[in-house]
Write a structure and sequence with these properties.
- The chain has 15 helices and four strands.
- It is mainly alpha-helical.
- The chain has a four-stranded mixed sheet, sandwiched between helices.
- Strand 1, helix 2 and strand 2 form a beta-alpha-beta unit.
- Helix 7 packs antiparallel against helix 9, helix 7 runs parallel beside helix 11 and helix 11 packs antiparallel against helix 14.
- The longest helix is centred in the last third of the chain and has 35 residues.
- About 1% of the residues have low confidence.
């Protein structure tokens, strides 16, 4: 049940993030109603310019008609050019004081259009001050070539991250929550008096008991890990998924994260005494680790102080490696060294948690 719930959450968050792209910031043609009360040469040029870049239709100077247009969302905005605009346009520094732009509440498209108008007027103003006529100033302004940007594919993937990298990014939250909850509940059950006494009276040593528990939990963790890979395998296309750059390192990184999550679950299970307490501990721990370590918020966005704290958690090193794998399709020698370092650091955290859990187990047994 926990696996299905948190897998669904992870997939939903992945789908939401993967839809965000640079296309959200491309230019857009706005639907504009244009009211020209000035009928001047410059207002005509503003209309021509806007009509070239947007869908513009002329409208009468009727307040009720303008309100109706916006109320029924017939146009994105209404631009009104007042009388005297032609005398002021090339003298003042902006359009805010004499161009009226009205639109629906909560929309910010007017900023985009206003910047375009200001840019045209500023350019025309410079040409007129240099001695050009208004007509020639407008021609020179619209004849300026737009800048072109060529993306140099340095990282080998066209500047885009693979879709499944988002699911791998959310995997630690899934692994820690599901494994800690399930393993914790089992360990709490094992600590009941009758079970503890029976285990203590057996010929199996404490060390052997703990090793067997870790092995059983390892099998459980590997099953969770394999199920996650199977979901990704079918969700992102079987052939494309297997042929993706660095897919082997993605899988290895997630496997090491699974191995690291098991000792964390074992440690929590050894210090908790009641089943009801498991969720009260696992939920804030998993969420706190996820926010600090770059699961829900990318490491590039986190502040320096948060990153310094996150370095003391294994998930930070998992996410640091995952970000690098999603950015570069081919890794240099130094980047490969970083792969080994991050994997080793996660395993060291796992060893530390195992040691802590064994110490707690021995202390409680001696106490009893």
């Amino acid at each position: 049940m926990y696996f299905v719930i948190f897998t669904g959450i992870s997939i939903a968050m992945q789908l939401n993030n993967s839809k965000q792209s640079v296309t959200d910031f491309q230019s857009k043609r706005m639907d504009i109603a244009f009211v020209d009360c000035d009928k001047s040469e410059i207002s005509g040029y503003i209309y021509d310019y806007l009509n070239t870049n947007h869908n513009v239709r002329k409208m009468k100077n009727d307040k009720s008609l303008m309100q109706e247009t916006l109320y029924y969302s017939q146009e994105d905005m209404v631009i009104k050019i007042p009388k005297g605009f032609g005398d002021k346009a090339l003298k003042n520094g902006g359009t805010e004081s004499f161009i009226q732009i009205t639109q629906e509440l909560g929309s910010y498209g007017y900023i985009y259009v206003e910047q375009q108008i200001n840019r045209v007027l500023n350019s025309m103003r410079k040409y007129v001050n240099a001695g050009f006529s208004v007509k020639q100033a407008y021609k020179n302004t619209i004849s300026v070539k737009k800048s072109r940007v060529n993306l140099i594919d340095i990282n080998g993937n066209g500047g885009e991250k693979t879709d499944f990298s988002y699911m791998f990014r959310f995997y630690p939250y899934l692994a820690i929550t599901v494994i800690c909850t399930s393993v914790g509940m089992v360990l709490v059950a094992f600590k009941k008096k009758e079970i503890v006494r029976r285990m203590n009276s057996s010929a199996t040593s404490l060390k052997s008991q703990n090793v067997q528990l870790l092995l059983v939990f390892s099998i459980f963790g590997i099953i969770i890990w394999l199920l996650s890979l199977i979901i990704a395998f079918f969700m992102y296309g079987r052939i494309e998924f297997l042929k993706s750059p660095n897919i082997g390192l993605y899988i290895l990184n997630s496997f090491v994260m699974t191995i690291t999550a098991l000792p964390i679950a074992y440690f929590i299970g050894m210090i908790v005494k009641k089943t009801e307490t498991i969720n009260l501990i696992v939920t804030p721990v998993s969420l706190g680790i996820s926010f600090i370590s770059g699961v829900f918020v990318e490491l590039s966005v986190l502040g320096d102080t948060v990153k310094k704290i996150g370095r003391f958690l294994p998930v930070y090193w998992y996410e640091d490696l995952n970000d690098m794998l999603s950015t570069y399709s081919e890794l240099s020698k130094s980047q490969l060294n970083k792969v080994y370092t991050n994997l080793l650091l996660q395993l060291l955290f796992a060893v530390a948690f195992i040691g802590g859990a064994l110490v707690v187990t021995k202390y409680r047994r001696e106490e009893k």
